[in-house]
């Protein structure tokens, strides 16, 4: 397979973009990333003209795949031709917020921002402002974007920043616990209960393999936060309007968080984030309340139109049934291949998420540390490049989730299972 154009573009990019990319994970594939020319349904075509089955799907936003329906395309074109944005409010922002509030029972009000990171930054500030407390609890192996409060490593209250450039004093306000460990979170609340503003949790860890919650875990988080006057913040940037369909992961698990962060899918492929929750909390945000929040591009009309039309399409068609059925076929096929060829590995995922993680600790990984023991070198250096040769584009590192879209087909699934079989 000739990939010379990608190599040459990467070489050129290294001269003007730090690390050759605009988001770190894109440069994880060795020795150079694949540069994209265009998408086509469930496939992606690289700068050299090679075509791959695409399971990256924009890292999650592309619910409908690369071929957007006519309704989405015409809404985007109309908005663009009428002047892309104004710095003044538009009706489509209300319509989008109404759609979210109609489908997600915990959400009465929405504030739109421009990325998942912005959403979690604002949610943490809102939780601190609302409760008058400073500490937040996050899960080890969880990810909430490139923000100062959650880029931490360590255990319990012994955390340090996980990146240079973040003052150590920021990490002092962030506590970490292992996901799915009821004892650990209970202890943290026993010790710091009246200092904790919020527990911030992905309902399913989706940036460290795919780790599903044990039965009762989210109920424990819900009870502890409620008992201690802290907020439960579900980070549904990945799971929102993907896992659990239109009611999101919180609907699937039957949990009512105080705040939810959204991103990815709700922008229909354009930059977006959002915070949603009860009126009483949301109205603490400026200009209704005092917790400052603002953004020139927030509620961008083109994004709003693309997101709303995408979600409307999903509400009116068999989008989730198709994706989830196909993903189930894929996971079943991969389970057979793994049992036969690599019984030391695990197939993980639910709804339209899937991944083969290169580790097996018991039945399925229970937390970030289980997944962290994966065989990263083998995955990066041998497995992923070989899958590319077999025409299958997997996520850029061993830990990111992979996404089935509405545009994927049974043929994509069969080809992928075959490629895993050959490669493993
Ligand atoms: N939260 C979660 C759970 C995420 O997966 C991500 C990104 N993958 C973010 C927040 C940050 O979103 P963004 O990259 O849009 O800033």
Automatic annotation (TrEMBL):
**Membership in a protein family:** Belongs to the class-III pyridoxal-phosphate-dependent aminotransferase family. HemL subfamily.
Enzyme class comes to: isomerase
Q: Which reaction does it catalyse?
A: (S)-4-amino-5-oxopentanoate = 5-aminolevulinate
Q: Which InterPro entries match?
A: 4pyrrol_synth_GluAld_NH2Trfase, Aminotrans_3, Aminotrans_3_PPA_site, PyrdxlP-dep_Trfase, PyrdxlP-dep_Trfase_major, PyrdxlP-dep_Trfase_small
The record lists the lineage as: Archaea, Methanobacteriati, Methanobacteriota, Stenosarchaea group, Halobacteria
Which terms are listed as keywords in the entry?
Cytoplasm, Isomerase, Porphyrin biosynthesis, Pyridoxal phosphate
Spell out the protein name for this chain: Glutamate-1-semialdehyde 2,1-aminomutase
Note the CDD domains from the entry. OAT_like
Q: What gene name does this entry carry?
A: hemL
Q: Which organism is it from?
A: Halarchaeum salinum
The pathway is: Porphyrin-containing compound metabolism; protoporphyrin-IX biosynthesis; 5-aminolevulinate from L-glutamyl-tRNA(Glu): step 2/2
Which SUPFAM superfamilies does this entry report, sorted A to Z?
PLP-dependent transferases (SSF53383)
Entry's localization field: Cytoplasm
Q: Which GO terms describe its cellular component?
A: cytoplasm
Look up the EC number in the record and give it.
Answer: 5.4.3.8
Q: Which residues form a coiled coil?
A: none
State one Pfam family annotation: Aminotran_3
Residues with PTM N6-(pyridoxal phosphate)lysine:
264
Q: Which cofactor names does the annotation list?
A: pyridoxal 5'-phosphate
Record-level GO BP terms: protoporphyrinogen IX biosynthetic process
Q: Name one GO molecular function term.
A: pyridoxal phosphate binding
């Amino acid at each position: 397979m000739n990939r010379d154009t990608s190599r040459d573009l990467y070489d050129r990019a290294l001269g003007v973009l730090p690390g050759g990319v605009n988001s770190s994970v894109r440069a994880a594939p060795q020795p150079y990333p694949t540069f994209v020319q265009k998408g086509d349904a469930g496939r992606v075509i690289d700068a050299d003209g090679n075509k791959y089955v695409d399971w990256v799907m924009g890292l999650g936003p592309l619910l409908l795949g690369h071929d957007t329906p006519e309704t989405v395309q015409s809404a985007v074109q109309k908005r663009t031709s009428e002047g892309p944005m104004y710095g003044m409010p538009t009706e489509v922002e209300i319509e989008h917020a109404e759609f979210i509030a109609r489908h997600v029972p915990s959400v009465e009000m929405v504030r739109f921002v421009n990325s998942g990171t912005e959403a979690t930054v604002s949610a943490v500030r809102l939780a601190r402002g609302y409760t008058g407390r400073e500490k937040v609890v996050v899960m080890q192996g969880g990810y909430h974007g490139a923000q100062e409060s959650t880029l931490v490593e360590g255990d319990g209250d012994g955390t340090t920043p996980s990146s240079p450039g973040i003052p150590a004093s920021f990490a002092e306000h962030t506590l970490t616990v292992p996901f799915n460990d009821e004892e650990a979170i209970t202890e943290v609340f026993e010790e710091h209960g009246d200092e904790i503003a919020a527990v911030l949790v992905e309902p399913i860890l989706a940036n460290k393999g795919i780790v599903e919650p044990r039965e009762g875990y989210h109920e424990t988080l819900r009870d502890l936060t409620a008992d201690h006057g802290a907020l439960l913040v579900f980070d549904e940037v990945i799971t929102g309007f993907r896992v659990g369909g239109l009611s999101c992961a919180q609907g699937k698990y039957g949990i009512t968080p105080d705040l939810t962060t959204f991103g990815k899918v709700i922008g229909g492929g354009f930059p977006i984030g959002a915070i949603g929750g009860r009126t009483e909390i949301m109205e603490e945000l400026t200009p209704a309340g005092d917790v400052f929040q603002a953004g020139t591009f927030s509620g961008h009309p083109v994004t709003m139109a693309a997101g709303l039309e995408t979600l409307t399409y999903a509400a009116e068609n068999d989008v989730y049934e198709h994706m989830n059925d196909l993903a189930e076929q894929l996971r079943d096929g991969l389970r057979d291949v793994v049992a036969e060829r690599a019984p030391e590995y695990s197939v993980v995922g639910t709804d339209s998420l899937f991944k083969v993680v290169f580790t097996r600790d018991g039945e399925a990984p229970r937390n970030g540390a289980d997944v962290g023991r994966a065989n990263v070198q083998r995955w990066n250096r041998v497995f992923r490049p070989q899958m590319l040769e077999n025409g299958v584009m997997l996520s850029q590192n061993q830990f990111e989730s992979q996404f089935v879209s509405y545009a994927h087909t049974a043929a994509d699934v069969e080809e992928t299972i075959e490629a895993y079989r050959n490669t493993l």
